[in-house]
Write a structure and sequence with these properties.
The chain has one domain. The relative contact order is 0.21. It is 80% helix and 0% strand. The protein has 245 residues and is mainly alpha-helical. It is built from twelve helices and no strands. The radius of gyration is 17 Å and the shape is globular.
Length: 245
């Protein structure tokens, strides 16, 4: 039964991630730890399955035209600084108390969620996208999360369309996940576990469905509200967990 629960959780996490561009690790990591898996197994399992989700989800986003050739430039503006800053974030993680790192993520996500929810928009700016992407990459290396919410909402705030913003949130995370897996492989003794397959297969299936939900949600103008609302909840949850356990 435990494997059944893990399969359902991985499928739902991938579905949410590829439809909104966020929350895969946020949903799956604590679930796997609560069910008894050690962080040494959970981290590579989530990184590997996240990579599969991003590749399969990105391909599906391209298939249904959420991501097109005109979005490649923005994707590169997101992916390159995010990947570089992920390394900086990982290094900085050892230099600050955990309460500071968690509070920073929580507050940042709440602020961006409020801006997204209330429809505040800034002029399109490549520098703005690079800044947002750098923050997102730093977050990923710093805490292992906080990438999707910042990247997706940041693009929306800088007047990028919702559908490609969600797609880019997945696609730009591919090199970030590869970097994380490489670092994990170099610094630790990585061994195969059956949980890798148990997580990756349903995650792949969920990621092939999520992009279709993005289309339906954007047609009814639900996506921005959902992104903003979920970000506020994530930020509040992070702060509550940080200060009250």
């Amino acid at each position: 039964m435990l494997y059944v629960y893990v399969v359902i959780a991985a499928f739902l996490a991938a579905l949410i991630d590829t439809s909104l561009g966020m929350c895969y690790g946020t949903v799956l990591t604590p679930f796997l730890i609560i069910t008894g898996y050690s962080p040494e197994i959970v981290v590579p399992a989530v990184l590997l399955s996240q990579l599969i989700v991003d590749i399969a989800g990105g391909a599906t986003h391209a298939k249904v035209k959420n991501f097109t050739k005109k979005d490649i430039k923005i994707a590169l503006l997101v992916a390159i600084p995010a990947t570089i800053l992920a390394g900086v974030g990982a290094f900085s993680n050892t230099s600050f108390p955990r309460i500071i790192t968690k509070s920073y993520i929580g507050i940042l996500v709440i602020i961006l969620g409020l801006i997204t929810l209330y429809g505040l928009r800034f002029k399109k700016s490549s520098k703005g996208i690079i800044l947002i992407s750098s923050l997102a990459g730093f977050n990923k290396g710093f805490m292992g999360g906080g990438f999707g919410p910042v990247v997706v909402s940041g693009q929306i705030i800088f007047n990028h369309d919702v559908r490609p913003s969600v797609a880019i949130g997945d696609i730009a995370e591919i090199p970030v996940c590869i970097m994380g897996l490489l670092v994990f492989t170099v610094l630790t003794k990585l061994s195969f576990s059956t949980i890798f397959l148990v997580v990756c297969i349903p995650a792949f299936l969920g990621s092939c469905i999520g992009p279709y939900i993005t289309i339906k949600a954007s047609e009814k103008n639900y996506t921005e509200k959902m992104v903003g609302g979920i970000m506020i909840l994530l930020g509040l949850f992070t702060l509550v967990k940080t200060f009250f356990g």
